[in-house]
């Protein structure tokens, strides 16, 4: 495993890290929770819940990924900025990420106390990383195949999807570094299902070690996605087991951050992989030892 | 005058029809079965195939266009003896370019086909139509498929006459095309309320092919089709032009008025004028025409057959 050190907020991690990033949507219409945390109090309660469950990071989003009603930057700010401030006030040590592609939103949430900008649409706004550099924030670079934000993949093909992912992520990370983002604050995400059909996402999962070998922290966002659903022919709501299987494979390949809906189950899978791989001792061992 | 193409089949351009994208069970088995049956029926009686398909809209690979691969796969799976020539039309070709290409197909038996401008620009996936190792490479084995239609002025493998009535195997026009990909909220392009009317126009034109309906395909607006992710607009317009019977100075419709391309709805984008075709005659009968949208994309499987005048 490649030696690695990376920083998120005030915390430092190494290549053995397997961090849980809990999704908290400030949206009325996201595909999985369908507005469960649209109200601020419900969202704050969700944060309390996932913190209690052991999440390392919360990822706050104000716009669902799928196509839908256009949400402008001001409305996006209304959804997330004050909420970030509230979360920061209540959880001073919690790592806070915000899922946005807009530089103006990024600036506002960093001012409100966020630590990470999760650029889920692959550099759609090139000024986002400049804002991150200004605040010494971490950035998640993602591969989308260059699609427009909030569009679904439609008949996209790659000669080699992993090569395209690597090339894109390296280019994004290099550019972020060139504008001043610290190298150890750059995370890469192959972005399953974004600009990808199921075959692409499976290929990326199968060959995730090739991304890990780049020597940067790797984030995977697998939770309940269509590639899981299509692999098992299961609807949203019945994809946890498949998600956890993909999580285990990704963990075995060495991914570092897992963006998820279900914290408890993910934490158990990651800890189990860490134990098997020797990165974490078992919780308690008495069998045959008494 | 007999028709230039004895058989015409329209099949979807969906990648999910390709073997390399099959899961344990097919995603759209009825669409696939219908498309294969139509191809098999057509090719069994008209084994010389001209396959018209569009270039990929957003090529990110050097693989052949999806439409080409779908055509090759269905032809191979037909297990018929056939000979295929591929004609790729740029997905964004103008109506005029489609008409030019379509007309050239009717004259192309043994002659040349000049493809529209910009068909195969450097880097275009279509220019490497049969990349080594690609599954599509093996798809045309029966009958010894012609693989290279990707150069202006390619020569067909038929007889050396430009007369569409020249003696030779009966021809099938295989059109790989589909309608809007914005039919539902879950569609690839999300919902666009304009897609229903667009798709109705496409399906209606095909279903009324026997009464001149195909001409209406020439009225499809390229910009609107692009907005609605209609992958098949250009191939359908090539088809409409190819199947439109040449006009003669004396041709007139039932009202005694001269007809030209695109007279179905008026306001055609196509050039009109003497000698460009009438498209009004019942040169084709609709053997079958099924439309479906299991994934928010309009798929049409249509089978037309030429009828004797």
TrEMBL record, chain A:
EC number from the UniProt entry: 2.5.1.15
Pathway: Cofactor biosynthesis; tetrahydrofolate biosynthesis; 7,8-dihydrofolate from 2-amino-4-hydroxy-6-hydroxymethyl-7,8-dihydropteridine diphosphate and 4-aminobenzoate: step 1/2
SUPFAM superfamilies in the cross-refs: Dihydropteroate synthetase-like
Entry keyword annotation includes Transcription: no
Assigned keywords, A-Z: Folate biosynthesis, Magnesium, Metal-binding, Transferase
Stored PROSITE patterns: DHPS_1, PTERIN_BINDING
GO biological process, one term: tetrahydrofolate biosynthetic process
Enzyme class, broadest EC rank: transferase
Entry's Gene Ontology cellular component terms: cytosol
One Pfam family this sequence matches: Pterin_bind
CDD domains (alphabetical): DHPS
Gene Ontology molecular-function annotations: dihydropteroate synthase activity; metal ion binding
Residue ranges annotated for the Pterin-binding domain, each copy included: 18-271
Cofactor: Mg(2+)
Function text: Catalyzes the condensation of para-aminobenzoate (pABA) with 6-hydroxymethyl-7,8-dihydropterin diphosphate (DHPt-PP) to form 7,8-dihydropteroate (H2Pte), the immediate precursor of folate derivatives. Has very low affinity for the DHPS substrate 6-hydroxymethyl-7,8-dihydropterin-pyrophosphate, but can bind the inhibitor dapsone. Seems to lack dihydropteroate synthase activity, and does probably not function in folate metabolism.
The protein's assembly and partners: Homodimer.
Family per similarity comment: Belongs to the DHPS family.
UniProt-listed PANTHER family: FOLATE SYNTHESIS PROTEINS, INACTIVE DIHYDROPTEROATE SYNTHASE 2
NCBIfam families in alphabetical order: DHPS
The name this protein goes by in its record: Dihydropteroate synthase
Organism encoding this protein: Knoellia remsis
Lineage: Bacteria, Bacillati, Actinomycetota, Actinomycetes, Micrococcales
From TrEMBL, chain B:
Protein name, UniProt field: Uncharacterized protein
Gene3D superfamilies registered for this protein in UniProt: LigB-like (3.40.830.10)
Organism: Knoellia remsis
Region span, Disordered: 244-277
């Amino acid at each position: 495993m490649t030696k690695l050190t990376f920083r998120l907020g005030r915390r430092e991690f190494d290549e053995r890290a397997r961090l849980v990033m809990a999704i908290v949507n400030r949206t009325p219409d996201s595909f999985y929770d369908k507005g469960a945390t649209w109200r601020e109090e419900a969202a704050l309660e969700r944060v309390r819940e996932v913190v209690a469950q052991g999440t390392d990071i919360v990822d706050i989003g104000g716009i669902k990924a799928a196509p839908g009603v256009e949400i402008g930057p001001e409305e996006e700010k209304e959804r997330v900025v004050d909420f970030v401030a509230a979360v920061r006030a209540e959880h001073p040590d919690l790592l806070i990420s915000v899922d946005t592609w807009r530089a103006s939103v990024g600036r506002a949430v960093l001012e409100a106390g966020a630590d990470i900008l999760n650029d889920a649409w692959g550099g759609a706004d090139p000024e986002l990383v400049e804002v991150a550099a200004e605040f010494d924030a971490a950035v998640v670079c993602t591969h989308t195949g260059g699609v427009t934000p909030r569009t679904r993949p439609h008949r996209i093909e790659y000669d080699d999807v992993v090569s395209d992912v690597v090339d894109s992520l390296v280019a994004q990370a290099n550019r972020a570094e060139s504008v001043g983002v610290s190298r150890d604050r750059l995370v890469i995400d192959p972005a399953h299902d974004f600009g990808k059909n199921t075959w692409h996402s499976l290929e990326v999962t199968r060959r995730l070690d090739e991304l890990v070998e780049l020597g940067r922290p790797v984030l995977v966002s697998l939770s309940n996605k269509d590639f899981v659903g299509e692999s098992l022919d299961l609807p949203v709501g019945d994809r946890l087991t498949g998600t956890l299987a993909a999580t285990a494979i990704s963990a075995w390949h060495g991914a570092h951050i897992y963006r998820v809906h279900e914290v408890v189950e993910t934490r158990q899978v990651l800890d189990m992989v860490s134990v098997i791989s020797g990165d974490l001792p078992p919780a308690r061992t008495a069998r045959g030892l008494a | 005058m007999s028709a230039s193409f004895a058989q015409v089949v329209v099949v979807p351009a969906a990648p999910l029809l390709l073997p390399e994208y099959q899961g344990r069970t097919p995603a759209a088995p009825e669409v696939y079965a219908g498309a294969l049956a139509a191809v098999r029926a057509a090719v069994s009686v008209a084994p010389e195939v001209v396959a018209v398909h569009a270039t990929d809209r957003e090529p990110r690979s050097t693989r052949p266009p999806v439409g080409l691969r779908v055509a090759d796969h269905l032809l191979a799976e037909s297990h018929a003896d056939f000979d295929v020539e591929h004609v790729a039309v740029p997905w964004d070709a103008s109506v005029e370019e489609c008409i030019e290409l379509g007309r050239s197909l009717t004259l192309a038996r043994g002659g040349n086909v000049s493809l529209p401008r910009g068909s195969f620009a450097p880097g275009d996936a279509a220019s490497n139509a049969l990349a080594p190792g690609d599954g599509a490479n093996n798809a045309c084995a029966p009958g010894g498929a012609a693989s290279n239609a990707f150069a202006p002025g390619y020569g067909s493998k038929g007889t050396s006459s430009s007369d569409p009535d020249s003696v030779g195997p009966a021809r099938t026009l295989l059109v790989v095309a589909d309608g809007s990909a914005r039919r539902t909220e879950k569609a690839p392009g999300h919902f666009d309320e304009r897609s229903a009317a667009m798709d109705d126009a496409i399906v209606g034109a095909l279903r009324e092919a026997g009464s001149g309906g195909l001409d209406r395909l020439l009225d499809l607006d390229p910009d609107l089709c692009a907005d609605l992710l209609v992958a098949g607009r250009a191939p359908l317009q090539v088809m409409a032009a190819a199947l439109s019977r040449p006009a003669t100075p004396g041709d007139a419709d039932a009202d005694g008025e001269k007809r030209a391309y695109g007279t179905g709805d008026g306001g055609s984008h196509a050039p009109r004028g003497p000698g460009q075709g009438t498209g009004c005659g019942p040169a084709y009968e609709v053997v079958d025409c099924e439309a479906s949208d299991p994934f928010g994309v309009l798929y049409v499987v249509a089978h037309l057959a030429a009828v004797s005048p």
